[in-house]
Design goal:
single chain; alpha+beta; BirA Bifunctional Protein, domain 2; 7-stranded mixed sheet; 3-stranded antiparallel sheet; magnesium; ATP binding; Phenylalanine--tRNA ligase alpha subunit; magnesium ion binding
C-alpha cells in the first residue's frame, strides 16, 4: 500500500506547476513541510516490513529528491521570467522605431552658418537670459527706448534705479556681439545664431520666440560696399545664382547708415506674384554700418576701426525657402509636418 502511495505522490510531484512564487511556496508546504505529504509517508516507514524497507526507503528518497528538483526548477523559471521583464517599458514606442529627420529650422540654420563660415565668419554664443547693459545699452538704445517697455520685452528682474542692471530674455542676439566686442579687439568677424524672445501675440506670422542669426565684421577700412557684396553672395548661395538684392534706407539704433535688404522673389523670378505681393521683392534682413557709439561703448576706437552688422530671422528664411504658410507649425511638433523634410539636406 505504501508503495502505491509513493508512486501516486511521485506522479503528482512530476506534474507540479506554478506561475508565481506564492504558488511555489504552497506546493512546498503541501509536499515538503513537517505536516506535508512526504513527511507523512516517512512517518509510516516504521510500519514497513523489514524485507521491504530497502525498496521503500529508496522510493521515498526518490520522491523527496524529485520534489526538491521540481520546486527548484519552478523557482528558476519564475526568476528568469521576472528578470526578462525588468527592462520592459510599456510606455515605449512600439517597434519598429522610425528614424527621424532634422527640424526645418535646423536645416536652414546650418545652411546659413555654412555659407557665412566659408566667408570667414566664426560662431559666437551667449546667454539667453541677459542684462540690459548688453542687450540695449551697449547697442546705443536710449534709456527710454520703447523696446525696453514690457510690451516688447520679457523682464525677469527690474532695477528701478539703474535700467542697465535689468535682467531679461534677450530680444536679439546683438548682446552676443556686445560681449565679443568688449572682450576682443579687431579684426572681429562673427555670426551669432540663437533663440530670442519678444512679447508678441502668437499668430501665423509672429511668435513670442524665434531664431536669429546676426553677423558682425569690424576691422580697419570696412565699408558699406563690403557689406553689400557679402549679402549678395549670401543671397545667391541661399536662393540661387540669379538672385538679385536691393537695399532700402532704414533706421536701427546700433547701425548708421542702416538698410533693409530685399531679394528678388525666387518663386516668380521678380515678375510679381501673390507670395511677393506682386512687387517682385521679398524682405529678408536688416543691416548697416556699426554706429561709432556702439564701438566706443564696447571699448573699440571708432576713429581707427569701422564695421558692419546684419541680422536675419531663421524662420523668415525657412518660410521663403520652403513656403511654410504658418509660423506656428515650426514649434507644434506635428510629425506629419516634420516628415515633409525627410529629403532635405
Amino acid at each position: 500500500m505504501i508503495l502505491d502511495k509513493i508512486e501516486s505522490l511521485l506522479a503528482e510531484v512530476k506534474e507540479m506547476k506554478a506561475s508565481n512564487a506564492e504558488e511555489i511556496e504552497a506546493l512546498r508546504l503541501k509536499y515538503l513541510s513537517k505536516k506535508g505529504e512526504i513527511n507523512a509517508v516517512m512517518a509510516d516507514f516504521r510500519n514497513v516490513p523489514a524485507d521491504q524497507k530497502k525498496e521503500v526507503g529508496m522510493k521515498i528518497n526518490e520522491l523527496k529528491q524529485t520534489a526538491l528538483e521540481r520546486l527548484n526548477a519552478l523557482r528558476d523559471a519564475i526568476e528568469t521570467s521576472e528578470d526578462g521583464d525588468q527592462g520592459l517599458d510599456l510606455t515605449r514606442t512600439a517597434y519598429p522605431i522610425k528614424l527621424g529627420t532634422r527640424h526645418p529650422l535646423t536645416i536652414v540654420k546650418n545652411e546659413i552658418i555654412d555659407i557665412f563660415s566659408r566667408m570667414g565668419f566664426v560662431l559666437a554664443d551667449g546667454p539667453e537670459a541677459e542684462d540690459d547693459l548688453h542687450v540695449f545699452t551697449k547697442m546705443n538704445f536710449a534709456a527710454d527706448h520703447p523696446a525696453r517697455d514690457m510690451q516688447d520685452t520679457f523682464f525677469i528682474e527690474q532695477n528701478p534705479n539703474d535700467v542697465t542692471k535689468n535682467i531679461l530674455l534677450r530680444s536679439h542676439t546683438s548682446s552676443v556681439q556686445a560681449r565679443v566686442m568688449e572682450t576682443s579687439q579687431p579684426p572681429i568677424r562673427i555670426i551669432c545664431p540663437g533663440r530670442v524672445y519678444r512679447n508678441e501675440a502668437i499668430t501665423a506670422r509672429a511668435h513670442c520666440f524665434f531664431h536669429q542669426i546676426e553677423g558682425l565684421y569690424i576691422d580697419k577700412n570696412v565699408s558699406f560696399t563690403d557689406l553689400k557684396q557679402v549679402l549678395l553672395t549670401f543671397a545667391r548661395e541661399m536662393f540661387g545664382a540669379d538672385t538679385k538684392i536691393r537695399l532700402r534706407p532704414s533706421y536701427f539704433p546700433f547701425t548708421e547708415p542702416s538698410a533693409e535688404m530685399d531679394i528678388s522673389c525666387h518663386i516668380c523670378g521678380g515678375k510679381g506674384c501673390g507670395f511677393c505681393k506682386h512687387t517682385g521683392w521679398v524682405e529678408i534682413l536688416g543691416c548697416g554700418m556699426v554706429d561709432p557709439n556702439v564701438l566706443e561703448l564696447c571699448g573699440i576706437d571708432s576713429k581707427v576701426y569701422t564695421g558692419y552688422a546684419f541680422g536675419l530671422g531663421v524662420e523668415r528664411i525657412t518660410n521663403l525657402k520652403y513656403q511654410v504658410s504658418d509660423l506656428r507649425m515650426f514649434s507644434e511638433n506635428d510629425v506629419r509636418f516634420l516628415e515633409e523634410f525627410e529629403g532635405a539636406k
